[in-house]
UniProtKB/TrEMBL annotation:
Keywords: Glycoprotein, Glycosyltransferase, Golgi apparatus, Membrane, Signal-anchor, Transferase, Transmembrane, Transmembrane helix. GO terms for molecular function: N-acetyl-beta-D-glucosaminide beta-(1,3)-galactosyltransferase activity. PANTHER family: BETA-1,3-N-ACETYLGLUCOSAMINYLTRANSFERASE (PTHR11214), N-ACETYLLACTOSAMINIDE BETA-1,3-N-ACETYLGLUCOSAMINYLTRANSFERASE 3 (PTHR11214:SF23). It is found in: Golgi apparatus membrane. Belongs to the glycosyltransferase 31 family. GO terms for biological process: poly-N-acetyllactosamine biosynthetic process; protein O-linked glycosylation via N-acetyl-galactosamine. Its EC number is 2.4.1.-. Pfam families: Galactosyl_T. It comes from Solea senegalensis (Senegalese sole). It is a single-pass type II membrane protein. This is Hexosyltransferase. The keyword Hydrolase does not apply.
Amino acid sequence: MVKSILSCKLDSRMKRFRCRTFWLAVSLGVLVLNLRRNYSDQTKNLHKSDHINKRIYDVERQEQDSQIRQELPSHYVFPWPKCQENTSAANVTDFSSLPSRIKDFLYYRHCRHFPMLLDVPDKCRGADKSADVFLLLVIKSSPGNYERREVLRKTWAKERLHNGKKIHRVFISGTTDTGFEKLRQNKLLEMEHREYNDILQWDFVDTFLNLTLKQILFLEWMERNCPNARFLLNGDDDVFANTDNMVEYLQSLKDNDGGKHLFAGSLMSGDPIRNPNSKYYVPVQVEINSFPIYCSGGGFLLSGYTAMVIYKMSQSIPILPIDDVYMGMCLAKAGLKPSNHIGVKTFGVNIPSTKLDQYDPCYYKDMLLVHRFLPQATFLMWQRIHDSNLKC
Ligand SMILES: *[C@@H]1O[C@H](CO)[C@@H](O)[C@H](O)[C@H]1NC(C)=O
Ligand SMILES: *[C@@H]1O[C@H](CO)[C@@H](O)[C@H](O)[C@H]1NC(C)=O
Ligand SMILES: *[C@@H]1O[C@H](CO)[C@@H](O)[C@H](O)[C@H]1NC(C)=O
């Protein structure tokens, strides 16, 4: 019998079938046992390495936590009451006919102080040492733009020395959305902040019409934490900025180490747009009839000196919905002028023919700043312009 089962040499077809099924079941059983053993070995190893990783993680967390606790001085109590809407704003002529974003703007236009949700007070190693920061990158970014920030951290906004000069980075942000989505967005920024220490976030709604507010809050932060930074790049998170070239350009300014006026970018002029469908709509109720010359907010370079002058001027100029125009108004009030730099292309680079590669690194390697660049393009271009084999 045993012999016949082993060899499956049974007569009837039915018996042969049973015999095969038997062997199939046995092999399956062996296979399952083996797999289980492997699996439990693996999970044992996994648990072991998990355990070690968690211990390393906990230690790092504790270090970071105590660092963050140190960063947020316990005596720092937000000194202003919560800003209330100005109900009289609704008294202006034809208020009811204005788009709701403009109504919102008018209701909260007077609000200039908001609590900080995330701070990096030692970004410049304290106000006294802040003169060591040669170029502070101040990048306007709203919470949802995670991918942009990730790529910038690896490319042009990497904190580093270039030509012996320190480049530091902060993203400036408000809050977006409501309810759980708002909480998730805030959590995301908080996690990034723990990992990179590069986010300044205030508790106001991060909209296009609140960008001026964002700029003023940043300048207030700068006066407190980084007043002597030599130069700043102020711009959007969807630009390609050649920060190496910027440092070289700023170093070449023989008579300015950041203590004199500089405000350079892509010059703009024009009057307020009265079309309610435009992103840049400024209704007559905002009470501004002409714009000064200004630099496009996509990105401009300024000296620490000029940043502090703008901050002082801003204290007596009502907030405008367009942040770059507002900067121009602050300059004008101080009797200073913005200047044009041909390397700043906030309307893109004009590549002479559509037959040419619109992303040929040779067109970009000598630029200071180009708008607009999305994450993949930024990552690729940064690698390509640094390729030592690049021949132009
Ligand atoms: C605005 O209008 C309200 C009534 O709608 C009135 O009570 C208030 O005094 C007005 N404010 C101003 C500043 O005119
Ligand atoms: C509120 O709005 C009214 C009408 O625009 C304005 O006259 C007043 O100065 C505003 N109040 C504050 C506190 O900004
Ligand atoms: C600006 O932020 C304030 C504070 O969060 C908010 O109340 C207001 O609606 C925002 N303004 C605009 C135009 O979004």
